[in-house]
Amino acid sequence: QVQLMESGGGVVQPGGSLRLSCAASGFTFSKSGMHWVRQAPGKGLEWLANIGYDGRDKHYADSVKGRFTASKDNSDNTLYLQMNSLRIEDTALYYCGKDLNWGCDYWGQGTLVTVSS
Amino acid sequence: QTVVTQEPSFSVSPGGTVTLTCGLTSGSVSTSNHPSWYQQTPGQAPRTLIYNTNTRSSGVPDRFSGSILGNKAALTIRGAQADDESDYYCLLFRTDDTWVFGGGTKLTVL
Fold first, then answer.
1. Is the pLDDT confidence value at B62 over 90?
2. Residue A101 pLDDT
């Protein structure tokens, strides 16, 4: 069955960096695009980034463009999100999702990122 | 900037039917936006209900259906049950190859 497991969250100071990982199994990762989505405490879902199946096409929300970079290691079935210049408002639960026909059909359980001094 | 709009809250009686909508502050939602719908209960990851306007995700009962109604995407829930009480989010694909979520609808079943 499809499984997605995020990791790498933690507490970081404003201006700091963090790299999230999403380990995928149960499907052909090398043929699937992926998404990153986050949810700030008590708030709604926010789409952040999409990466194409081969890791080449990437698209970002304006809120993270230039600070966050998505990447994909198809040899290791792992999705990454490199987050730089972190801000207080980046505090959220971060989810990875498997793309299907311009939506997400499977989700991980999320990893919590807290940006605080 | 165009915002995706959803009803902040909605109420339905057990066994009843409810239609939640997903619109744009500027323009119309069409199948080209490939609307998808997600259900989320507190403390849980989202669950995919509908993708590509009207395709049900694996395991989703046919009580849930997606469509375009007028200039909005719509999620219809028939025979509402207590465990349908959740937050519902729509996701739209945009012409600049980005995606955007609506603000979500909190559905109460009572």
1. yes
2. 87
